[in-house]
Amino acid sequence: MTIAVFGLIYYGISLTSNWSKTASQIDVENAAKKLEDIYSDVDVTMAEPVKGQIDLDSSEVGDSLPDISKFPVSVENTTKDYIEIFSSTEKSGSGNDGWLNEVAEAFNDAGIERDGREVSVKIRSIASGTATDYIRSGKYVPDAFSPSNELWGQMVAADGIPIQEVAKRLAGNVAGIVTNKAKYDELVGKYGSLNVRTITDAIAANELSMGYTDPFASSTGLNFLVTTLQTFDSSDLLGEKAVQGFETFQTNVPFLASTTLQMRDAAKTGMLDAFVLEYQSYVNAPDLKSGYVFTPFGVRHDSPLYALGNLSAEKLDIIEAFAQFALQDHYQQLAAEKGFNGMEDYRSELGKVDGSLLSSAQKLWKEKKNGSKPIAAVFVADVSGSMDGEPLNRLKESLLQGQKFLGRSNSIGIVSYSSKVTIQLPIGVYDTNQQSMFVGAVNSLQAGGGTATFDGIAVAMKMLEEEMKLHPEVKPLIFVLSDGETNEGHSLKDIRGLIESMEIPIYTIGYNANIEALQSISSINEAASINADTDDVAYKIGNLLNVQM
Asked: Tell me, what DSSP letter sits at residue 347?
């Protein structure tokens, strides 16, 4: 998955002067020379390949779900008779994102009784896609579920899980494409209007730089995926016509984000002309309202409320009472004050989509999201003395579980570093043989010595440079797994300009880490940084690799 349009197109070009060269060509040549200089300073060794035992069973992200306690309860129940609700985060957070929490607290304070029993609700704040993973896997099923939109409810129903719609809407919201006003005016001037169809045409024609979010985790991302497929063939979302249209469109999408926050951070750099966002977030962001235009798309995000499982009549009664409480005028006005209930006139052109088709659309996205361009990725593992024990054990566990999400068409290598750097596995196509050697390399990692993080990154960049000489079409990525403490070798200052010039996204994953240090590396090219704790590291990395690989 790319985060920027990669500029390593200079391979094989040899000219004797800078006359007639563009500034970007000169910069790339300077970057290549600087990389060679840094690489020559690094103590690099090549490990003997070791094969490991592989597991050929397929893996789903939900298989590695952490204990549900990793997702906070934002409102506690106050009585023994209560129901638990999984709520999407835009309404169960804080401030403008805390509407449902305030409603739940008021409900619990109201002393509401049903059949002589005082009742209450518990709210657990959890992203819609993650909540759906828990419910569909059966690892944890709450009494009720309020995702951002109805698509997740349809996916749950398609799995045969008992689900009942209690309220079609708790608070109104809309997904949309937020476009830089100058670009918006330009596109409207050419196409007459801006909608998903004209946007996909503009992207396919390389006239618009746009990003969207992971459709496995993000409600807006899933909505955008389905709406895009529908624009290519409304009669068959997974037909040949829709798939071909999506592939052409996807080839020119420069940015896919794991989260909305990552998308917003990328947008702040000015690198994107447009990106997806919910209207409630848009109206609460003054920097967006003044310079961007919001264009709605897809199904509405009206936060439906579902009852799950074979609930008792008493529990179902509490859910219905809570829905009625939330729909009172006072709380609907509160929702409006927090940015909800806007764009009330918008009606979706997207008809109801069967949940099984939604799951198939996600799988199609996973298969086709890189177009015809495979990924070349290097994993850079910190094996310094500070990683000894539990951090290194978790690093190994996360790589061994995460490697199941690495696409077979991609190419993978692995580097380890302490005071020195070792190429544990040169870049190769991730077939069964490469997978076996990847597992063997991970299992052989041992901790000791200092921490030369940027030496490890430089070696990974050199490996990718050589790979792109052979295969210019690949998209390069680096994943750094570390505790973030660098005390030897080159510094970020030494290598920052090189990272910027080569535009290789560097994803960082921290173990008991100096997260700010890792974030500073990832932020250079708008990649994500994960703080991986003991219980949910495998799930977080599985999600990351599912999106990026």
From this structure: -
